[in-house]
């Protein structure tokens, strides 16, 4: 009893056999051949459907009696074309036929099926995208998008509008180009640069071929046959005489090649010591700019508008006191005492001259330019430290109500 129990335990520990569905090599060949021929049949029926769909439309779906349609695959072609083209995805339905044909090739030749799954996934997405995009042109031909593509497009336009649907379709196209085709702006620019470089290389190569000079080939052994009517110009001691033409090219010896040469010395260049401008002045005299404008008169100051009545400097005592108190309080916050302060009012800027207490550094006051401008609520101030020739420190503050400074008063 104990031995039987042990045997049962041993048999129970064994892993059970996995049950799976695998095709043999013959089955793959048969299945692949079937899918390949089915895909070819779908392609032929789809192509024929575009030419015969209107005449076969009334005969679609009637399978009870023998019907002769104009489709290349007769009743099967008419019904399958109506199912996929008209009621399906339109022109994009060709993608299904191509995918079935490709699957048949993969099974028939026993290729790896991992890539085939990717083809089906991206092919289905492309089919839907093309169908929805062509739905914009359904008014031209209803076979462009099919019923499914038209319904999806119509739903998107009801929810997003025409522009929103167009943006969504464009975004899906960008996703496909980047994820599937690995197309990025860098790749596009590199492609254009490569094409431009190839075109430039083609042009340069053609140009070098045209510009290349003709070369003499010394390997040509056949002598030049001169015309008997021509005169042999070979130099002889008895001057140039007419002789019979020879079959070989006459050789020129070193003595015959000597030619007398005349040497001429180049004339030295003339050195001009005087400058060209000085020479022109010496020949023609100095130019008088007033010669052509002898009757010209300078414009008078009366041409400018006079703001004498409105340009008077107005002194606002309250503004001066307020600015003085703010300057003093700001400097006191930084422990800078002031011995005296004087205000000089101008048309646009008022200069406050201060005399600091003894022992106060000038740079310390100069570094407080932004703080003083903030306390005065001014757009900007200027500190002159020190004012030349006076021994004081100046603070220029813009007036709240500046006066007009006319160009006439400046020139006058």
Strand and helix layout:
Elements: H1 2-12, H2 25-56, H3 74-89, H4 94-108, H5 114-134, H6 146-180, H7 185-211, H8 276-284, H9 317-333, E1 338-345, E2 349-356, H10 362-366, H11 369-376, E3 382-384, E4 393-398, H12 407-411
Antiparallel strand pairs: 1-2, 2-4, 3-4
Helix pairs in contact: 2-3, 2-4, 3-6, 4-5, 5-6, 9-11
Q: H/E element string?
A: HHHHHHHHHEEHHEEH
- In the sheet with the most strands, the strands line up as 1-2-4-3
Oligomer: single chain
SS-derived structural category:
alpha+beta
Helix content: 40-55%
Strand content: 5-15%
**Main sheet characteristics:** 4 strands, antiparallel
Q: Rounded to an integer, what's the Rg over CA atoms?
A: 52 Å
How many strands appear in the DSSP assignment? 4
Which word captures the global form? elongated
On the 0-100 scale, what is the average pLDDT?
78
Termini separation comes to 137 Å
Low-confidence stretches: 1-7, 9-13, 239-244
Question: How many helix segments?
Answer: 12
Protein described:
This protein is an alpha+beta fold and 412 residues long. The protein has helices spanning 2-12, 25-56, 74-89, 94-108, 114-134, 146-180, 185-211, 276-284, 317-333, 362-366, 369-376, 407-411; strands at residues 338-345, 349-356, 382-384, 393-398. The chain has a four-stranded antiparallel β-sheet. A hairpin with an 8-residue loop joins β3 (382-384) and β4. The radius of gyration is 52 Å and the shape is elongated. The relative contact order is 0.05. Mean pLDDT is 78; it is low at 1-7, 9-13 and 239-244.
């Amino acid at each position: 009893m104990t031995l039987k129990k042990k045997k049962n335990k041993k048999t129970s520990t064994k892993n059970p056999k996995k049950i799976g569905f695998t095709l043999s090599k013959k089955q793959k060949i048969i299945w692949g051949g079937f899918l390949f021929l089915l895909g070819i049949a779908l392609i032929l029926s789809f192509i024929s459907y575009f030419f015969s769909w209107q005449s076969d439309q009334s005969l679609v779906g009637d399978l009870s009696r023998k019907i002769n349609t104009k489709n290349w695959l007769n009743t099967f072609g008419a019904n399958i074309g109506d199912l996929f083209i008209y009621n399906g995805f339109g022109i994009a339905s060709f993608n299904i036929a191509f995918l079935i044909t490709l699957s048949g090739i993969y099974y028939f030749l026993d290729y790896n099926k991992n890539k085939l799954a990717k083809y089906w996934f991206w092919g289905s997405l492309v089919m839907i995208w093309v169908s929805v995009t062509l739905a914009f042109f359904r008014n031209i031909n209803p076979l462009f998008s099919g019923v499914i593509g038209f319904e999806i497009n119509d739903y998107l336009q009801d929810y997003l509008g025409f522009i929103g649907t167009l943006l969504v379709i464009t975004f899906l196209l960008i996703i496909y180009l980047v994820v599937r085709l690995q197309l990025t702006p860098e790749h596009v620019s590199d492609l254009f640069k490569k094409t431009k470089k190839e075109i430039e290389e083609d042009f340069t190569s053609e140009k070098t071929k045209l510009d290349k000079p003709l070369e003499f080939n010394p390997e040509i052994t056949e002598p030049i046959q001169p015309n008997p009517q021509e005169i042999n110009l070979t130099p002889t001691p008895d001057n140039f005489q007419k002789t019979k033409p020879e079959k070989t090219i006459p050789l020129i010896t070193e003595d015959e090649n000597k030619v007398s040469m005349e040497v001429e010395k180049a004339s030295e260049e003339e050195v001009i010591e005087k400058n060209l401008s000085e020479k022109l002045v010496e020949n023609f005299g100095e130019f008088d700019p007033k010669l052509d404008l002898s009757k010209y008169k300078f414009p008078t100051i009366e041409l400018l508008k006079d703001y004498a009545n409105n340009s008077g400097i107005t002194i606002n005592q309250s503004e001066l006191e307020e600015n003085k108190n703010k300057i003093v309080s700001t400097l006191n916050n930084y422990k800078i005492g002031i011995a005296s302060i004087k205000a000089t009012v101008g048309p646009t800027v008022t200069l406050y001259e201060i005399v600091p207490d003894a022992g106060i550094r000038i740079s310390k006051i100069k570094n407080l330019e932004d703080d003083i401008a903030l306390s005065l609520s001014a757009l900007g101030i200027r500190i002159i430290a020190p004012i030349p020739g006076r021994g004081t420190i100046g603070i220029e503050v813009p007036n709240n109500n500046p006066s007009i400074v006319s160009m006439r008063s400046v020139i006058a």
